[in-house]
Amino acid sequence: MVKRQIVSFILRWFVSSVAMYICINFFGSFKEGSEMMRNSFWLYLSAGLIFSVVNTVLKPILTIFSLPLIFLTLGLFTVLVNAAMVGLTIWIMPDVQMTFWGAIESCILISIINYLVNLAMPDVK
């Protein structure tokens, strides 16, 4: 059981790293003078780890507190919750910037990527 959870976490970390690579390069930007970080493997690996930890720890808490708004908007507020998770991850990352709309687009893209991965590997949860 523990081995399955470790494999699941590593898989989600890898998928989050690939998704953050795509999102940062399409919707984000780098601060002036830090363009060489764009090709850094460790930047995207750490972004995926930070995103996985933020989603695991903070997202359930934020979702519980925003349940009235989620019910009121018939679930559309979860897009803003997911965008907040992406925004927090980008805020923690050094020399990476993203606009609010970039975070919205990133959370939609990450959701699609995670959906496709879950379709391909339904038993790893």
Order of helices and strands: HEHHHEH
**Major sheet details:** 2 strands, antiparallel
Structural class: mainly alpha
Q: Gap between N and C termini, in Å?
A: 11 Å
> How do the strands line up in the largest sheet?
1-2
Number of strands: 2
Q: Helical stretch count?
A: 5
Rg value: 15 Å
Query: What does the average pLDDT come to?
Result: 88
Percent in strands:
under 5%
Q: Which percent bin holds the helix content?
A: over 70%
Q: How would you sum up the global shape? A: globular
Task: Outline the low-pLDDT stretches.
Answer: none
Give the tally of structural domains. 1
Topology diagram in text:
Elements: H1 2-27, E1 28-30, H2 41-65, H3 67-72, H4 77-92, E2 96-98, H5 100-120
Antiparallel strand pairs: 1-2
Helix pairs in contact: 1-2, 1-5, 2-4, 4-5
Can you tell me about this structure?
The structure is a single chain. This protein is mainly α and 125 residues long. It has one domain (2-29, 58-120). The protein contains five helices and two strands. The protein has helices at 2-27, 41-65, 67-72, 77-92, 100-120; strands spanning 28-30, 96-98. It has a two-stranded antiparallel sheet. α2 (41-65) crosses α4 (77-92). The radius of gyration is 15 Å and the shape is globular. The termini are close together.
Q: Which labels suit this protein?
A:
single chain; mainly alpha; two-stranded antiparallel sheet
